[in-house]
């Protein structure tokens, strides 16, 4: 019986043809571990056909969050739609990459694969009648020169939108944009951020899975271009005391049949009932999913009042101290109606973060959560008793508190499954326990002379 080629077969054949025609020597296979760190191994082009058809085996026991050694065999299955030629070469060799889905030896999706977790969230979305979860994350980062002791030193003293000689990184940003666009990632904005040597390059919004892939690629490109220019780039949420940390403000919307399900021309805020319930879901569940969008001990040094990182659970159109902002509607731009959640940071696992945000919003839609009135007052100026009277809660103040909330959350279990949730909780408890017993320079300076 004749086998009819499928669209997937065509994509795989196109990858094989490109590798041959463009004389690509190595193909890197990318995936992430449970906490979002990029993992990679390379294959030669003679192994490519087997890889795209059957995947490549590897030892999962050495990957954070994957199986124990007695169940360690894993398959990395390259996604041919993710094939890109890297914008830098290895000597005189051209190198490409593909992002992989992780499967079991039986060919089933692996439950601890972060990409699979996001795919499951998108399936829930489609079951509710939506076609697309569009996401536009804004990842901030710092450039540093590291001294002999590995301590960071900013390249400049520039501020927000600085475009003077004080900004030593203008060309570096532009080189990064060119590299991103060579990787098929469209860029909308690039500029200096508020902190010294802090920068932002904004990718054009896209579907949730594509955008999570883009975030992983973005972080790799930013770091690689910086390294090639003799500096260091970091997505650490709070690398410097006394200045703003780096966030990942994330714009979100749901679409059905090409129409923005968040827009209602007859509503006073131009928000549909779907949008209101979605935002209400994220507000209600934000504390318990904080572990997924702010997953490091350092993340909670950014999430403090006074440094443009929102901690108070409210929404607004104009007030940037609120957790979620709904940018003002401009006539003729119904498709741009969206909710911007401002608490995630760029060091998160974007697959898990986007999955958790989507689940929280969908929970609001399914359960019919009601959206409270917006808070247009700068929330840091309101006293704690006043906030309590208004019903405004806060995000967790530490990784330890975030762990406790996630562990008891039915929504986190729904997003991750109980086994993956327990693995993440165990990893994060180990990090928190290690962090909280450290003795910092601040403690030595403050207490040693007097106690």
CATH evolutionary superfamily of the largest domain: Glutamine synthetase/guanido kinase, catalytic domain
Could you give the count of β-strands? 17
The Rg value, from CA coordinates, equals 23 Å
CATH topology of the largest domain: Creatine Kinase, Chain A, domain 2
Q: What about the largest sheet?
A: 11 strands, mixed
Distance between the termini: 84 Å
Count of the domains: 2
Report the average pLDDT across residues.
Answer: 89
Count of alpha/pi helices: 13
* Name of the level-1 CATH class of the largest domain: Alpha Beta
Helical fraction: 25-40%
CATH architectural category of the largest domain: 2-Layer Sandwich
Question: Which residues form runs of ≥5 with pLDDT under 50?
Answer: none
User: What fraction of the residues are assigned to beta strands by DSSP?
Assistant: 15-25%
| Overall outline | globular
H and E order: HEEHEEEEHEEHEEEHEEEHHEEEHHHHHH
SS class: alpha+beta
């Amino acid at each position: 019986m004749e086998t009819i080629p499928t669209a997937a077969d065509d994509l795989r054949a196109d990858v094989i043809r490109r590798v041959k025609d463009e004389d690509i020597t190595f193909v890197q296979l990318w995936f992430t571990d449970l906490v979002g760190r990029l993992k990679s191994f390379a294959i030669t082009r003679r192994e490519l056909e087997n890889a795209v058809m059957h995947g490549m085996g590897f030892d999962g026991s050495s990957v954070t969050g994957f199986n124990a050694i007695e169940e360690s065999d894993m398959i990395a299955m390259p996604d041919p739609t993710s094939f890109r030629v890297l914008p830098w070469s290895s000597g005189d060799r051209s190198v490409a990459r593909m992002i992989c889905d992780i499967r079991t030896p039986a060919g089933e999706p692996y439950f601890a694969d972060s990409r699979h977790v996001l795919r499951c969230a998108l399936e829930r979305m489609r079951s509710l009648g939506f076609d697309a979860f569009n996401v536009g994350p804004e990842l901030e980062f710092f450039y540093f020169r590291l001294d002999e002791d590995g301590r960071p030193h900013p390249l400049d003293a520039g501020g927000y939108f600085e475009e003077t000689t004080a900004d030593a990184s203008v060309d570096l940003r532009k080189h990064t944009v060119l590299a991103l666009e060579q990787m098929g990632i469209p860029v909308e904005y690039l500029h200096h951020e508020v902190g010294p040597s802090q920068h932002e390059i904004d990718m054009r919004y896209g579907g949730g899975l594509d955008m999570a892939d883009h975030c992983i690629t973005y972080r790799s490109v930013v770091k690689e271009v910086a390294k090639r220019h003799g500096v260091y780039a970091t997505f650490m949420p709070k690398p410097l005391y006394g200045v703003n940390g780096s966030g990942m403000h994330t714009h979100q919307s749901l679409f059905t049949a090409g129409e923005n399900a968040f827009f209602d021309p007859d509503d006073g805020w131009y928000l549909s009932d779907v949008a209101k319930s979605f935002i209400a879901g994220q507000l209600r569940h934000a504390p318990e999913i904080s572990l997924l969008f702010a997953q490091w001990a350092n993340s909670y040094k950014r999430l403090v009042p006074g440094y443009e990182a929102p901690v108070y659970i409210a929404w607004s159109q104009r007030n940037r101290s609120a957790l979620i902002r709904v940018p003002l509607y401009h006539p003729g731009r119904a498709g741009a109606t969206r909710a911007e959640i401002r608490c995630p940071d760029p060091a998160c696992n974007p697959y898990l973060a986007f999955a958790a945000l989507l689940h929280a919003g969908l929970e609001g839609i399914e359960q019919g959560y009601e959206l409270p009135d917006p808070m247009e007052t700068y929330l840091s100026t309101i006293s704690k008793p006043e906030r309590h009277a208004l019903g405004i809660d806060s995000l967790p103040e530490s990784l330890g508190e975030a762990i406790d909330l996630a562990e008891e959350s039915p929504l986190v279990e729904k997003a991750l499954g109980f086994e993956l949730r327990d693995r993440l909780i165990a990893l994060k408890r180990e990090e928190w326990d290690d962090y909280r017993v450290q003795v910092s320079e601040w403690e030595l300076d403050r207490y040693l002379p007097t106690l």
